[in-house]
Amino acid sequence: MFCNDPATGLKSIIAIHDTSLGPSLGGTRMWNYQHESDALVDVLRLSRGMTFKSAISGINLGGGKAVIIGDSHKDKSEMMWRRYGKFVDSLGGKYITAEDVGTSTQDIEYIFQETKHVAGKPKYLNGSGDPSPFTAYGVYLGMKASCKKAKGNDSLTGLKITVQGVGHVGYYLVDHLLKEGAIVSICDINQNNIKLVTDKHQVNVIDVKDVYTHPCDIYAPCALGATVNNDTLEHLKCSIIAGAANNQLQSEKIHGDIVKQRGIVYAPDFLINAGGVINCYIEVCGEYNEERSMKFIEKIYDRSLEIFALSDKENINNQEAAIKIAKQRIESARTLNGRR
Ligand code: NAD
What we know:
The chain is built from twelve helices and twelve strands. The chain is of the alpha/beta class. Helix 5 (168-179) links the parallel strand 7 (160-164) and strand 8 (183-187). The longest helix is centred in the last third of the chain and has 25 residues, at 290-314. Bound molecules: nicotinamide-adenine-dinucleotide.
């Protein structure tokens, strides 16, 4: 749905990819896209990712996402967000929105004034709060499962781990890794975010341009997508790739196959970074319960091992194996609900 409102300057696209399992849920990204077509490509790609993420996580949500075209530092206003909230509301709950890049807690509050179809609300609005610590926990568990597959045991103690990007998720991930005795290196383009980590922990700080050549056992992309590509694979010498970033493989087929052929265990991104959406799901189910959320997120460990086993059995790459399982669950739900 294209949502334009000249009075407030709102230019937005809401994409609902699939609702076989339940209402679509995904954040609203505010980004200064050069062309409207770039925004469209992005929102369609992201909403597809949400479908698979929820499906593989065993939660009853479909895939959706929204983008707002504009500079999040100067193009926001209360009325723009409230107008956007009215568009979300007009979908009658088929799309539930949440925070994403360029969206703040304040923006969510404005949207919430116009629609109840919002998740990841702050705790003072009876929401589940920032999803990032939950995402980080899931990534940590997915990383441990990857380690079990690569090395036969899941201990991260003594392993060299490079975390690319210590923003909301990377910051909490570093906590888990250090607690388990990993040797952590970090990089970020934002010196303030580096400082938040170094004020708390002793970690190696590396230059962003050295992130692919820096020797490590595990490379954890927690900043951008498409960092696993022909150029970076020339340098990466790790045995595991496991991180929070969405769409890490530039091409799911080409680069998913290359990492498998090289014996690198790649933890499918949408599988291990699902902690945040799982937490939102528990919120939209009714009274929020953190313990229930954590129990759900813990399933990421066993599910990762299942995916690795399927990948070996069928000789397909890990991303393909994860998509296969996600699609099977969507198909089963369609049959159950008489939609086929
Ligand atoms: P964020 O914006 O808070 O953090 C990203 C960090 O990466 C920032 O500190 C930024 O300065 C840094 N960065 C940007 N470009 C970089 C570069 N070239 N090299 C090194 N660092 C760079 O985002 P986040 O919420 O921590 O999410 C991280 C990734 O995980 C994103 O791709 C996001 O889509 C994905 N993700 C996040 C969540 C969540 O719960 N927050 C859930 C699922 C997926």
